[in-house]
Structures are given as structure tokens and as C-alpha cells.
Amino acid sequence: MPDLKQIVKAYDVRGTVPDQWDESLARAFGAAFVRVTNATAIVTGHDMRPTSPSLSRAFAEGAAAQGADVVEIGLCSTDQLYFASGKLDLPGAMFTASHNPAQYNGIKMCRAGASPVGEDTGLVEIRELVESWTAADDTVTVPGSDAPQGTITQQDELQPYADHLNGLVDLSGIRRLKVAVDAGNGMGGHTVPTVLGGLPLDIVPMYFELDGTFPNHEANPLDPKNLVDLQAKVREVGADIGLAFDGDADRCFVIDERGEPVSPSAITALVAVRELARAKADGEAEPTIIHNLITSWTVPEVVREHGGKVVRTRVGHSFIKQEMARTGAVFGGEHSAHYYFRDFWRADTGMLAAMHVLAALGAQPGTLSALTAEYDRYAASGEINSTVDDQAARTAAVRAAFAGSPDVTFDELDGMTVTSRDWWFNLRASNTEPLLRLNVEAREQAVMAEIRDRVLAIVRG
């Protein structure tokens, strides 16, 4: 019997195909999704991975067998699926493994209005149902339903998605910008031409061909090596800005005119300022901004300077969305370049964040590096991954090493965060891989490097 705990993570399903999961399990997930959400209709979409169409169709068949009508929007970005869930007011399922290598696939699920399905909001129940239907010989038998067979129909939501985004950020009046875009052979190659076409933007496309084998580089812009091509292109063509999307195009990384990465924390602060101003213009006295615990100290500082309230939360889209719903936050940002908008059903959309940056850049004559300088106040390591055999033991060893340090505090909201007056670091176990993820920030570069190297020596020792 497959160990579903290995593929059902904190906020999605993710594993290798076909050894960890396949169409039979996808069909069972579809049936379980309908039962847990009590859905009479759902919407599904998928990315460009070779296994995505068949897995998505099997899920749809499982859902229809339980009596739910299924609207398939086909090839789409994850935020396009969230748009469809919001617009159609239907639970949704997106088939993607985001930035993971080609042999992986997964499911990101949501309730109607793009409300998240995570471990505390239905994902455990879905897993337990599928487990109950899976025999020791790996056969999956889903019980029948008294409901009539649901229908499976197709619907194109790309243009409505583009129209919605352009209704939220008006780029028609900005100065003309040259924009290099690296889609990484992912879904950005599908959405960028429609969303940004016809605007005062000269798009320089890179790797727009949809190819789930990722022939050029992994579609994971969090890894610096995957930004090298875009950085070179920005310098080569004299672009004003570079944009790098991950595989399912729900994240966007930004490169300035020098070819240097702009930290997601700086982008979070920049967009927060714009969203605070808009919310205040609409009469909100103290709008709320969400940030996860790995974003820079700069983010809460900037938000407070612009009259906003900050809420710190753990990493992961389902947790951010829950906090946004609870607090009514107008915007949320993560260190991993996930950006969440109240006007987008509290869902994450890299495209909308990119449009905000383009709007801010195009509304003034200066460079992007000058524009973002005020949002980059501290020395940061970026996220550093270490493969380990025992995540808990390595974390405990780091804790022991810093436990005796003066003026140090610990918190365990998500992983372990260790904070001193001049620095902080977070060490967090990956939900999807055997990794420990380290982020360090300090007031001075030398201090950041010292703390970073000290922690890594213990983690990798």
C-alpha cells in the first residue's frame, strides 16, 4: 500500500509519478475531494508536465463519478486556476509540482472562492478517505455514489483572467519599458503574452515554449543558478527589468536593470506600500499586511512607516490565506516570492505582483535599483538548502549551540527562529524534500556571514 503521508504534504499533494502516485490515485483524490468539500461542481486545471493531462482527467473522472460536474480549464497557471475558482465560485484543483523536477507532479486544491485546502482544512480527511479505499496490493476501489454521474466540460478562462488582472493594475499609461521574461518553459509562457500583450511593454521572451521536461533550467527561480540566463539577457538587451516565473507561474522573481536580483522582501515592501495607499484612499484607517516569518525586518518597518498593521505568520499558502481571511489583510508576501492579494480572493499571483512592480517603475523616470533601494536595508543570506538525514536532530544541535548565547530568543511558529539584537535566522524543515532551509539576516554583512557559516557548519557537520 502506498504511504500517502509521503505525498500528502501540509498544503498540497506532491510526489513522483508513477512510483509514488498515478492515475488510479488521482481518480481517488478526485472522489475524496468531492466528498470532503460536498461539491456539486468543481473546476480543474493543469500545467505543462507530461503527466499532468492524464492525472487531471483521472481526477475529473473520480469527481464526476461522485456526482460533481467538472469544468476543465486545461493548460493554466496556478493563479489562473485560483481566478477560475473565485470567478465561478467553485472548489478547484490544480495539477502541478510547481518548481520540482519533471518526474514530480502534484495537486493544489481549494474550496470555492480559492479558499485553501490544507492539513487543517480538509487535506487530512481527503488523505484518510483515499487510504481507506487503497488495498494492500495497491489497487484502489472507490465506493459508488447514489448521485447521478456528473458532466465534464471544457472552458477557456485565459482571457477573462488577463482582463481581471488588467482591471486591478492599469499599465496603459506607464512609460514604455523593456521587460525580459524567463518563463522557464513553464506556464508563464502561456499567460504572459495574453496578460501583458498590447501594453507599453517591449517583451523579450525567454523559454516560452511549454516543456515539462525543463530543457533549459529548472523552473525554480529561488535557486540563483536558474536566474543566470535572465540576468545575462537583461544586461545584453539593456532591459529595464527582468521577470522570472516558476513552473506553474504563481511565483515571480524580479531582476533590476543591472542584472541583480531584487529580494522578494523588497518586492513585498514595495507592493505593500501601493496596496496600503489604495486601501487608505478607500477609507481603511489601518490596513493589514501579512508577512511570513522569513521575510526581512524591512517589511514590518516599511508597513508601519506607511500606517499599516503587520501580522507575522508561518510559511505556506494555506496558512497565509487563512490569516488574510481572519484579519481582512489587503496583501501578503513571502520570502519565496509568493504574493497574495485580497482583490484576488486572497490567493497568490506572481503575475499581479509583477504588474505592480511594472506600474511603480513605469510611473517614474528612475531605475528599478533606485526604486527598490529603500526597501533593501539589511544583509540577507537568501534561502540556503542542506540535504540532511535527520531534520529534527540537526535542528536540535543548532538550538543547543545557540542556547547559551546572551540576548537570544527562540520561537517555533514555523521551524526554529533564533533572534538577537543584530541578527536573526530561521531553520525550517522542507515539507516536500529531505532538506533544512536556512535564512539569515543581520544589520551588517560580516555578521550575517558569521552566523550563516556557524549554522551551516552544524547542519552539514
UniProtKB/TrEMBL annotation:
<keyword id="KW-0479">Metal-binding</keyword>
<keyword id="KW-0460">Magnesium</keyword>
<dbReference type="InterPro" id="IPR016055">
    <property type="entry name" value="A-D-PHexomutase_a/b/a-I/II/III"/>
</dbReference>
<dbReference type="Pfam" id="PF00408">
    <property type="entry name" value="PGM_PMM_IV"/>
</dbReference>
<protein>
    <submittedName>
        <fullName>Phosphomannomutase/phosphoglucomutase</fullName>
    </submittedName>
</protein>
<dbReference type="InterPro" id="IPR036900">
    <property type="entry name" value="A-D-PHexomutase_C_sf"/>
</dbReference>
<dbReference type="Pfam" id="PF02878">
    <property type="entry name" value="PGM_PMM_I"/>
</dbReference>
<feature type="domain" description="Alpha-D-phosphohexomutase alpha/beta/alpha">
    <location>
        <begin position="6"/>
        <end position="133"/>
    </location>
</feature>
<comment type="similarity">
    <text>Belongs to the phosphohexose mutase family.</text>
</comment>
<feature type="domain" description="Alpha-D-phosphohexomutase C-terminal">
    <location>
        <begin position="383"/>
        <end position="456"/>
    </location>
</feature>
<feature type="domain" description="Alpha-D-phosphohexomutase alpha/beta/alpha">
    <location>
        <begin position="160"/>
        <end position="259"/>
    </location>
</feature>
<dbReference type="Pfam" id="PF02879">
    <property type="entry name" value="PGM_PMM_II"/>
</dbReference>
<keyword id="KW-0597">Phosphoprotein</keyword>
<keyword id="KW-0413">Isomerase</keyword>
<dbReference type="InterPro" id="IPR005841">
    <property type="entry name" value="Alpha-D-phosphohexomutase_SF"/>
</dbReference>
<dbReference type="InterPro" id="IPR005843">
    <property type="entry name" value="A-D-PHexomutase_C"/>
</dbReference>
<feature type="domain" description="Alpha-D-phosphohexomutase alpha/beta/alpha">
    <location>
        <begin position="268"/>
        <end position="378"/>
    </location>
</feature>
<dbReference type="InterPro" id="IPR005845">
    <property type="entry name" value="A-D-PHexomutase_a/b/a-II"/>
</dbReference>
<dbReference type="InterPro" id="IPR005846">
    <property type="entry name" value="A-D-PHexomutase_a/b/a-III"/>
</dbReference>
<dbReference type="Pfam" id="PF02880">
    <property type="entry name" value="PGM_PMM_III"/>
</dbReference>
<dbReference type="InterPro" id="IPR005844">
    <property type="entry name" value="A-D-PHexomutase_a/b/a-I"/>
</dbReference>
